[in-house]
Design goal:
The protein has 355 residues and is α+β, with helices and mostly antiparallel strands. It is 27% helix and 26% strand. The strands form three sheets. It has an eight-stranded mixed β-sheet with strand order 1-2-12-3-13-16-14-15, with helices on both faces. α1 crosses α5 and α5 crosses α10. The chain is globular.
Length: 355
Amino acid sequence: MTDNDYQLLEELIATPSPSGHEQSLQKIVRRELAPIAQSVQTDMLGNLIATLPSSAEQPTRVMLTAHCDEIGFLIKYIDENGFLFFAPVGGVDPHLVPGQRVHLHSANGPLLGVVGKKPIHLLEAKDKERVIPFTEQFVDIGCSSREEAQALVAIGDPMTIRVGLERLQGDRVTGRAFDDRVGVFAMLRAVQLAARQSLPCQLSAVSVVQEELGLRGAQPASYGVEPDVALIIEIGHASDTPTNDPKVVGEASLGCGPVLSRGPNINPALFALLQQTAKEEGIPVQVIGEQRATSTDANVIQLSRQGVATALVRVPTRYVHTSSEVLSLADLDAAVRLLAATVAKISDREHFIPS
């Protein structure tokens, strides 16, 4: 990964975009894609769609997509002493939130806060064994009254964990919101790489919103793009840590390449094309079986209009939906190369119709 690539990934990680508040990140996506796109538009939900020119007269429409939203929180109540009570937006583990430093994203700009709870010294024995529910957690922004806090924040303001991207050993990095900033990064770099040549397909890069709330952005985005083929980029649960069972989640390790999903949510011909392309390009890949509709945007995109040939390319990631997710930069680079090379081979939608 080049220094420029790392700086872009760092910028994506640092930019907050909890579900429903994604436009700060979409501005970066627009900046990166506008110089190579024939058109860039944003729909009513906030999905950003950048379409590239094609050399074909009636090209197959290909959608390359990742979701730009992240899990977060929303302010629900401000008490008389200026403490803020909140609710999770998306799948947040309540175990991991107390003691975190957070940013509240208010009309006045980002505001630092700390998530508090009763200290362990003051907990009764029975309470030490239970998960502290979100209703008993609160944010301390240093105010002493409701009026003081209300001058700074408002009900409904979003909130995110305040950590950035950091290097571990070798090519391993840790940070928040890898789900799905790594997908957005891979989409951007793959499209930029693919655009260096004349494409036989009509390629649309789509940064979708509100995936963490039930795949809400991908459905209207795919309806608008009308793709024949869709490649979805996501994180994948790495199973190479002591507490994971590969018999349950599949065998996926950091440093062994991107993960290709296989199952009813995946078009067999598109899966085969990804595998063949990986072989030809010398890109290592891993395969996991997913026996039902995946919990990704591939689920709703596959069912759009008369159906879409979908495939799912995952970047193996440890500790998903925590503030310290871990992945290999080599896997991310490999995903970029695989996506760009595959897109360049898609020319005829008939190849993907089951027969």
